[in-house]
Specification:
Layout: H1 2-71, H2 83-95, H3 102-124, H4 129-156, H5 162-173, H6 176-179
Helix pairs in contact: 1-2, 1-4, 3-4, 4-5
């Protein structure tokens, strides 16, 4: 009986020593796995955010800036643009609305309200100067909001800040200056 008791004590002592040796190792493994998992999640999230910013920049902001240059908005108000260019702006904005933040969407809502008045007025030959002025002012606000956001995105994705340059040019020489 005494030998059995000594043997059981020996087994228990061995098990306690093994557990004491295993617990720190298991703890290190759990902490390492958890840390690796969290770091991978963070890297994936950052990578996806960067890819989304890049997609928005490439699919909406760069084409918008290019359209500004091709439409010569530096010298013309929206209402003075050829109808083809007005439609291009309309399509570009509506097809890429998913890339816009709240500061742009607020102006887009107002712009489309004025644009529909403009289009219906154009058909009915009932355009007045006030409607045209409001449409041009709202479009100028849309342009400025888009260019500010484009500039911010360019900084975040390490691209040339074309939006900042275009915004400066637009504010200095654009038709908005004529409205003041």
């Amino acid at each position: 009986v005494k030998e059995r008791l000594v043997f059981e004590l020996y087994i228990m002592k061995t098990m306690v020593m093994m557990m004491s040796a295993l617990i720190p190792g298991l703890l290190v493994a759990v902490v390492t796995l958890t840390g690796t998992f969290l770091i991978n999640m963070l890297q994936t999230w950052l990578s996806n955010r960067r890819a989304a910013r890049r997609e928005a920049y490439d699919n909406f902001y760069i084409p918008f800036i290019a359209l500004l240059y091709s439409a010569d908005v530096w010298n013309l108000n929206f209402s003075e643009l050829p109808e083809r260019k007005q439609v291009e702006f309309y399509k570009l904005i509506i097809e890429n609305i998913r890339y816009m933040d709240d500061s742009i969407l607020e102006w887009v809502d107002v712009f489309y309200g004025h644009l529909s008045d403009f289009l219906f007025g154009k058909r009915a030959d009932t355009l007045d100067a006030g409607l045209l002025r409001h449409l041009d002012e709202v479009f100028a606000c849309v342009v400025e909001s888009v260019l500010k956001r484009a500039n911010g995105l360019a900084k975040k994705i390490h691209q040339p800040q074309l939006g900042g340059h275009a915004l400066k040019l637009y504010q200095e020489t654009g038709p908005a200056m004529l409205l003041i």
